[in-house]
Design brief:
Layout: H1 4-19, E1 24-27, E2 38-45, E3 51-58, E4 61-68, E5 71-78, E6 81-83, E7 93-108, E8 116-130, E9 135-144, E10 147-154, E11 159-165, E12 168-170, E13 176-179, E14 193-196, E15 202-204, E16 207-210, E17 217-223, E18 231-237, E19 240-245, E20 254-257, E21 260-261, E22 264-270, H2 273-277, H3 281-284, E23 300-305, H4 307-310, H5 326-339, E24 343-346, H6 375-384, E25 388-394, H7 399-415, E26 420-424, E27 432-435, E28 441-444, H8 449-464, E29 468-472, E30 487-490, H9 497-501, H10 510-513, H11 549-558, E31 563-565, H12 570-574, H13 577-585, E32 590-599, E33 603-610, E34 616-622, E35 627-632, E36 641-648, E37 661-668, E38 673-678, E39 683-690
Parallel strand pairs: 23-24, 23-31, 24-25, 25-26, 26-29, 29-30
Antiparallel strand pairs: 1-2, 2-3, 3-4, 4-5, 6-11, 7-8, 8-9, 9-10, 10-21, 10-22, 11-20, 12-19, 13-14, 13-16, 15-18, 16-17, 17-22, 18-19, 27-28, 32-33, 33-34, 34-39, 35-38, 36-37, 36-39
Helix pairs in contact: 5-6, 7-8
The chain binds 1-deoxynojirimycin (NOJ) and calcium ion.
Length: about 700
């Protein structure tokens, strides 16, 4: 009997094979129906041909591989989705047909690491059917010269629950890896582990790998995480990283309704670690701006009533040392106005902080200020000085409580001219509070589907109120800032705050690893710029910031965030005008960014061009080793520049002598080269200002 769907799939397959016969093998059909055609193996290559992804079907199972310049980098790895009820998409599968496309377009970012982004890729859409010819799903692959992504596209089969995604990444387990544990209590706020991949159990993405025998480097992550659960990589068998989706509290992974697509599963490939940092893969795999005119989402630099809480000089809660007082906020507004900052963040302004605020998320109010904080008056005081307040919403992970007030809270901030909010979800991993209509409480993951959907709801609502979001304890970044450019920044890694608490502080290597791991996912609110590295204590007493002063400056260029903080107390900036000038001067929005050199755990050198002038900036950091780095200035444009160099002074050393800073001025152009000299735990920050 002739199967109508099989017949049409077969016709489709023949058509497709007609256009690209060279990389298709057309095999014998399924036994009962000679109309069903299945393709053994299909390939798609990147525009340059350097990178290739293959998809094959054997005995009803799908597998994919990847090759870089002819070498296999991903060994045959499974694909599939399993559901609680109904037919799984993981066996009795054939590749029924493929269609192909290519794409070369340059699009503009409203703000970011670079203004113009080239999206140049080849695409293969493989229609996957069951062996009886019934369509199963489609696998869409987009392959660029620096990486690729693929996703499952599944037609409507009603409301269903995914219980397992069976995507695998099979990689040589002797590869070197940089990773943080997935599914842990401390969310993404871990120091990176540097181990053979064989020692990695369960990891958050992005993870970074260096394959044996000099590479290449790989970064595995996901793009466009929408209405789905975040992916951890679980090495359940040596050398096989399996996608493990953050579960709901009921144990299911993803609740789908109707047709759905998964996030893109992405792999970046580069001969150098620096190459990973120069890729736009994640953004290119996201949908274009859905918000239209976002000129209201303005990159900015801010100060805040914040560090004093972390070093215990003031408190979030009310009382003698309450940080968010009207008087202190006025002083911060004055300081911001005097030194050209755009915003002033104030934490602890609202009811709910008294007592154990970590555990009391249900009592936070997002509209009621403490009596010693005159919200309306301060918003007006700031506006008169051409500064604005930055809002703060700590939820302690109690998302339902937040959602009950979110509309009113955003409307209040909009009315007061507050254009950005720092949100927070302090709660252990797996401890997000979801309360249902009957008041029953469930505990969810920060990267489960519930939290993923909350973050997008918040972004869309914030956009209606012309507000940008900087989320702490967030879900990881998967490039949604392209679609929703009010998704400014986030934490999602171990930031500066750990240096205040010291449990333990960030070691000197930490910020040499971030640019090749966490930062591949997007901007981070690391909060650089601590000048009093010991918080008034003797220089060698812990906790303290394990960097030199010059390295704090370099972080402004290295760690991109369109909302960038000058994190220290005003008095510490006033004490070091030599270093403070750079913090005031450094841009937060860039027309180009180039990672010049680096190796995770050792050093990183980033050059970026200001979006609003012809100036270039450079930030270089090293780990605990002193380092001399040669750089070529050929990234500069064709004019002469004054290089204003802020470097570690004589005998600087993060451990014993972190403060010496030397300013050096040189005339340079694009034909010049430079030798950077970094102290142990040190850095260099340079402004290249055109001479005419
Ligand atoms: C943790 C955030 O990372 C930090 O910046 C903030 O001060 C506290 N939560 C309180 O919201
Ligand atoms: Ca945090």
């Amino acid at each position: 009997m002739k199967h109508p769907i099989a017949a049409s799939l077969a016709a489709f397959a023949l058509l497709a094979s007609g256009c690209a016969t060279s990389d298709l093998n057309v095999a014998a059909a399924a036994p009962e129906d000679s109309q069903i055609i299945s393709l053994d193996q299909v390939n798609v290559s990147s525009p340059s041909g350097d990178l290739q992804v293959s998809l094959s079907a054997e005995n009803g199972a799908l597998a994919w591989t990847a090759d870089w310049r002819g070498d296999r980098v991903i060994q045959p790895s499974s694909l599939g989705l399993a559901f609680k009820t109904g037919r799984d998409l993981n066996r009795d599968l054939i590749i029924a047909s493929v269609s192909r496309a290519n794409h070369d377009e340059t699009w503009e970012q409203p703000w970011g690491e670079r203004q113009f982004v080239r999206d140049h890729h080849n695409e293969m859409l493989a229609e996957i059917a069951f062996t009886d010819g019934t369509p199963a799903f489609a696998l869409r692959v987009r392959i660029f010269d620096d990486g690729f992504g693929f996703r499952y596209e599944v037609a409507d089969t009603g409301a269903r629950q995914i219980i397992d995604e069976q995507t695998e990444f099979r990689i040589d387990p002797t590869s070197k890896s940089w990773w943080i544990p997935g599914a842990g209590w401390n969310r993404y706020e871990e120091l990176y582990k540097t181990t053979p991949m064989s020692d990695m159990h369960r990891a958050h993405t992005p993870i970074t790998l260096e394959l044996p025998d000099n590479g290449p480097f790989l970064s595995i992550h996901e793009a466009a995480l929408v209405d789905y659960a975040g992916m951890w990589l679980n090495q359940r068998r040596l050398g096989t990283l399996e996608a493990e989706l953050a579960p709901w509290s009921d144990g299911t992974k993803v609740k789908v309704e109707g047709a759905f697509v998964t996030p893109w599963r992405t792999v970046q490939v580069s001969d150098t670690a620096a190459g990973l940092a120069n890729s736009d893969l994640i953004l290119n795999l996201n949908e274009p701006n859905a918000l239209g005119d976002v000129s209201w989402a303005k990159p900015s630099k801010y100060v805040g009533i914040w560090w004093c809480m972390h070093i215990n000089e003031c408190s979030w809660g009310s009382g003698d040392i309450h940080g968010a007082t009207t008087e202190r906020t006025q002083a911060y507004i004055d300081f911001a106005a005097e030194h050209g900052f755009d915003g002033v963040l104030v934490e602890g302004w609202n009811h709910g902080w008294d007592g154990d605020w970590f555990s009391n998320g249900e009592i936070f109010s997002f509209t009621q200020a403490y009596p010693d904080f005159d919200l309306e008056g301060l918003a007006a005081y700031a506006a008169e000085r051409d500064v604005y307040l930055i809002g703060h919403h700590e939820t302690s992970g109690a998302i339902t409580n937040y959602e009950e007030q979110i509309e009113a809270a955003y409307a209040l901030y909009e009315r007061l001219g507050i254009p950005a909010i720092k949100t927070g979800y302090v709660a252990d991993g797996g401890e997000i509070t979801r309360r249902d209509a009957d008041g029953k409480v469930y505990k969810e993951w920060h990267d489960g589907q519930y939290a993923v959907n909350h973050h997008l709801r918040a972004l869309k609502l914030a956009a209606q109120h012309k507000i940008a979001i900087n989320a702490h304890e967030p879900v990881k970044d998967t490039g949604l800032r392209r679609t929703y450019p009010n998704a400014f920044s986030r934490e999602g890694a171990r930031g500066q705050e750990y240096n205040a608490w010291g449990q333990p502080p960030n070691d000197p290597a930490h910020t040499t690893i971030l640019p090749f791991t966490r930062m591949l996912s997007g901007p981070m609110d690391f909060t650089p710029g601590i000048f009093d590295l010991n918080f008034g204590k003797p220089v060698t007493e812990d906790p303290r910031v394990q960097t030199t002063l010059a390295k704090q400056l370099a972080l402004y260029v290295l760690l991109h965030s369109p909302i960038q903080m000058a994190a220290d107390l005003p008095r510490n900036y006033e004490a070091r005008p030599d270093a403070f000038e750079f913090v005031k001067q450094v841009p937060v929005d860039w027309s180009e960014s180039i990672m010049l050199d680096g190796y995770p755990g050792d050093f990183a050198v980033m050059a970026r061009k200001d979006r609003n002038s012809q100036a270039w900036y450079l930030g270089a950091v090293t780990d605990e080793e002193a380092r001399t780095i040669e750089i070529n200035l050929d990234f500069l444009d064709g004019f002469p520049y004054e290089a204003q160099i802020h470097k570690d002074g004589a005998d600087a050393d993060w451990k014993t002598n972190p403060y010496p800073l030397e300013l050096d001025f040189q005339s340079v152009d694009q034909n010049a080269s430079m030798t950077l000299t970094l102290a142990p735990g040190g850095g260099t920050a340079i402004a290249f200002i055109p001479l005419e």
